[in-house]
Amino acid sequence: MTRLLVVDDEPEICEFLKTFFEDRDFQVETAGSGEAALKSAETFCPQVILLDIKMGDVDGLEVLKKVKQANPKVKVIMVTALETTDKIEAAMRLGADNYITKPLSLEYLENDVREKISSLAAKP
Amino acid sequence: MKVIPRRNRFGRKAQPVDYHEALREIAKSMVRLKRPERLLKMITRFITRELGLTHAAILVLEPEKSRYTIFDSKGVKKLPRSLIRLDLDHPIIRWFRMTDKETEADRAYISKNRIQALLRNPQIYKNRPEVHESLVRLQRAMGDYRVDIAIPGHFKEALVGILLLGEKLSRRLFTQTEISFFQTLVHDAAIAVKTSEYHERLIERNLELEERLKEIERLRKKEQETYYEIMKSLAQEVHAKDPYTFGHIHQVERLGVMTAEEMGLDLSGRKKAVLSAGLLLHDVGKIGIPDNILKKPSALDTEEWKVMRTHVEKGVKILEPLTDFKEVTEIVRCHHECYDGSGYPRGLRGDQIPIEARIVSVVDAFHAIVSTRCYREGRSIETALQELQRNAGTQFDPQVVGAFLRAFKKNGRSRKAA
User: A3-122, what's its fold?
Assistant: First the structure.
């Protein structure tokens, strides 16, 4: 089962995406802060992380840097609102695997997550 | 067994909803609301609260982007508003944009139960795998959004938005009355949204248009003003060129306006300006008359008179490009008409001749008479006045002559000093 970590400071978004991916047989954990995200990244060992670029306490970019340092193989998809698109370039430099802007199409998101997983399988 | 009354999530005892009353209330608000945003929020709040639903959400088409976003969502299981968008190929959107005949009736609204029923009936999608696939995808999408029933809002052919409703907390099914109520709401909301959209765009476009029209009008005015200035200097030129000229052309204008005032004519608005322009410009066509005729010191022969008379149509031609000067042009055209119909170019009589032209005619004649006898100024004015009186009723409008004489006696003496 694929482990997916959803990081967003809006609980509704976490809850919604958790249900969405659990319905598709993912194992999902959620984190509402940068700190929780780093902790979960360590203990839960997700294969894919959906990471909100802008959160209250920690910059999503900080989280990205740390999780990639700890585990370069983890796939990180940045989720950004329109007003934070200027951070996308920085995120890609820091090793983000893709980005997706809100409001997003769930179908597109699902396809992207699955694509990341198959790329993981292809490169052991 | 004790019967426990059902309670909604606010702990209130669930009262049966009076839908007619609710519709009336909402309809009233709709009229009041200029912005449909508040109306949409009212709808989600009302439905979630009064019917005790897990959630209610409204999807609205973003006109320029060809996608639907969640405008508002309320309830314990509300959808994250900023997260999701539904593109045109999304199963829910596609369902309501489909034109499949067999499932046409299900385009009015679709429920989870109905999808199940349709999927159980192979007749529906027999030989049409695309319909089956749509239904399967629709079922899945409805699950993702925790939707029990979806009601589309159309405006004409366009799918403006969709009302998505979660299930009742009581897990009861929606009644037909409730569904009709939702449909009415969504229908009216779609109109409100579309109307306000049109309205906003209309206002925007109107403003743009108004600005442009103003600019065009400004340029046109400017152009005409310039033209008018040129006209005036031309008229002055003509006047100065005429050897019989006496005094300044503005005296002609002053006498004419005085006469009109004496007659009690309505000179409000632009009427006074029209009269003035007529008085100033009536002979502008003389610019096209050869000097040997215009400046001839002796009497003109028949041929020369023919040419001289063309100054009227020449003046009309010069003034025609000025769209604001229609009345002025008419004055110029008529200033050689006579009260008894013996004038030119058209032989008009009496009231057929614009009153301003009748005034110009009198003032112009007076001016011509005094001018030709400028070496005998004192007598010539008396002669001119007598001449006017003598021709009142034939060449001139007697009322105008009368007014001119009175005005002249009151004010005209100052002319001597000029």
Answer: Rossmann fold (3.40.50)
Q: Is B78 on the interface with A (CB under 8 A)?
A: yes
B247 and B360 together in one domain = yes
Q: Do B83 and A13 touch (CB under 8 A)?
A: yes
Q: What are the strands, taking DSSP E only, across B133-272?
A: 149-155, 158-165
Strands A75-80 and B149-155: unpaired
B3 occurs within a structural domain: no
How far apart are the C-alpha atoms of B7 and A97, rounded to whole Å? 49
DSSP characters over B46-78: HHHHHHTBS-EEEEEEETTTTEEEEEEEESTT-
What φ, ψ does residue B214 adopt, rounded to 5°?
Answer: -60, -45
Find residue A30's DSSP bridge partners: A6
Residue B222 CA: distances (Å) to CA of B42, B216, B317, B361, B398: 53, 10, 20, 30, 39
Pick B133 or B1 by higher pLDDT. Answer: B133
The CATH code of the domain that includes B115 is 3.30.450.40
Interatomic CA distance for residues A68 and B183, integer angstroms: 51
Q: Say yes or no: B243 and B107 in one domain.
A: no
- List the structure tokens of B130: 């695309």
Give yes or no: residues B106 and B185 share one domain.
Answer: yes
Q: Which structural domain, as residue segments, surrounds residue B401?
A: 225-410
DSSP calls for B160-172: EEEEEE--BTT-P
Å between B147 CA and nearest CA of chain A: 13
Residue B199's pLDDT is what? 67
User: What is this structure's pTM?
Assistant: 0.58
Option in B80, B82, B87 nearest A105 (CB):
B87
pLDDT of residue B209: 75
